[in-house]
TrEMBL record:
Identification of the protein by name: FecR domain-containing protein
PANTHER family tied to this protein: PERIPLASMIC SIGNAL SENSOR AND SIGMA FACTOR ACTIVATOR FECR-RELATED (PTHR30273), PROTEIN FECR (PTHR30273:SF2)
Protein FecR C-terminal domain boundaries: 338-405
Record bears the keyword Cytoplasm: no
Residues annotated as transmembrane: 95-114
Length: 407
């Protein structure tokens, strides 16, 4: 193939100066086997001469799509050895190269073989039907006592942030840490709020050393410092996993309280998960011991949970049930997975909607449909939906940012 001839024809086509014969010739060249590799080799020259224009937005979308691939996400999260990391980087480079080849090829083909008006309509239709739906990521907003706020996340935050000396951003776990404020007076330090959007999650280390993993579409309200307080108290709406540190004053333990829509959970040193979605408060104890009571109720109305106990409190009917469960399916979100064991399909779709920031529309009744399975939270959404479809119970159609559930 004559590469210079290909460049010449591409230039003329973009300028609208190709003759009918030259259009046919260019079209035939674009059908050549392995043309995408040839285009990749010519990319630098075409881009430098501004023959091809790829917007910053397109480049970012390509980058995001590459990051969303399961194999890339796995590499990003990998904590393996240096040798494994080198091998992983090589795999990522192959994926990026392959994706770049396809993007360039289809960009060239689309740009030069569709009339402008038709191309704009096609682009609009493609954007509607094939909107890029990416998995959630590490992002949140912290709201300060005075109402000002700071966006937090992989791309939006500098490496270290300080405000009045009471917190920094920790690069190691990509969360915020208040350990520097542990000596501040709890009465004057103030209260902050950490908010994760749909499609976001974040980690925080409180001033007492307690670690909290906040799931998507959740809110945690907490004091900047617990110093001098008779109890450590936070408020949760949504879902979070807690790893609570022990704290004592004069050899007397300082209780840790989590308030959630009328439920008050008291812990000493323990790990547990709380979920306040779906008009219920589901508390799952992983380690240690917790006491659950309720605001406005008598002191003798409480429950003690042991490891693997799960309590479900319906705060509308004010009824509670406690049973032993396998906590793996409750806490898998913290480790980067969706895991379900005979879960109602609506619950599964709600979790997906929060993480991928999409809407779900039901064209059929699904109350009797259950789903069991495990899949990475960083899976391509098409693959995820196909996995659910394999049960044979429903069909799932993605259009833009809406998933339609059908029989």
């Amino acid at each position: 193939m004559d590469k210079q001839r290909l460049i010449y024809l591409i230039k003329k086509r973009q300028q609208g100066k190709c003759s009918a014969d030259e259009n046919v010739e260019l079209h035939e060249l674009m059908q050549h086997p392995h043309i995408e590799k040839e285009i990749l080799l010519l990319w630098d020259q075409l881009h430098e001469e501004k023959t091809l224009k790829v917007s910053t937005d397109d480049s970012k979308k390509l980058y995001d799509r590459i990051r969303s691939k399961p194999e890339v996400a796995a590499v990003i999260r990998s904590k393996s050895t240096d040798i494994a990391k080198k091998q992983a980087r090589a795999r990522v480079q192959k994926i990026i190269t392959a994706a770049a080849v396809l993007l360039i090829f289809f960009s060239v083909y689309f740009i030069f073989f569709y009339p402008s008006s038709e191309k704009n309509n096609s682009l609009s239709n493609m954007a509607e039907t094939h909107a890029v739906v990416l998995p959630g990521s590490n992002k949140a907003r912290i709201v300060f006592e005075d109402g000002t706020y700071q966006e937090l996340g992989d791309q939006s935050s500098p490496a270290n942030i300080k405000k009045n000396g009471f917190y920094t951003v920790n690069d190691k776990n990509k969360g915020i840490s208040y350990l520097g404020s542990s000596d501040m007076n709890s009465q004057t330090a103030g209260v902050h709020t950490l908010i994760t959007p749909r499609g976001g999650e974040y980690t925080i280390q409180l001033a007492d050393g307690t670690k909290v993993w906040l799931n998507a579409n959740s809110t945690l309200k907490y004091p900047v410092s617990f110093h001098g307080a008779s109890a450590r108290e936070v408020e949760l709406e949504g879902e979070a996993y807690f790893d609570v540190s022990k704290s004592t004053i004069n050899n007397k333990r300082v209780p840790f309280l989590v308030k959630s829509k009328g439920q008050v959970l008291e812990v000493m040193g323990t790990e547990f998960n709380i979920n306040t979605f779906r008009d219920k408060i589901t508390t799952t104890l992983i380690e240690g011991r917790v006491k659950i009571a309720f605001e406005g109720k008598s002191d003798d109305q409480f429950y003690i949970l042991q490891p693997n106990d799960q309590s479900v409190y319906d705060y509308k009917s004010e009824k509670i049930s406690v049973e032993q469960i396998d906590p793996y399916y409750v806490t898998s979100w913290k480790s980067g997975d969706f895991a379900f064991d005979n879960a109602p399909l609506k619950n599964v779709m709600e979790d997906i909607a929060r993480w991928y920031d999409v809407d779900v529309e039901y064209k059929t009744e699904v109350s009797d449909i259950k789903f069991s399975g495990k899949v990475s939270k960083f899976e391509n959404i098409d693959t995820l939906l196909q996995t659910i479809e394999w049960t044979g119970s429903v069909k799932l159609k993605l259009n833009g940012r809406r998933i339609t559930v059908m029989k």
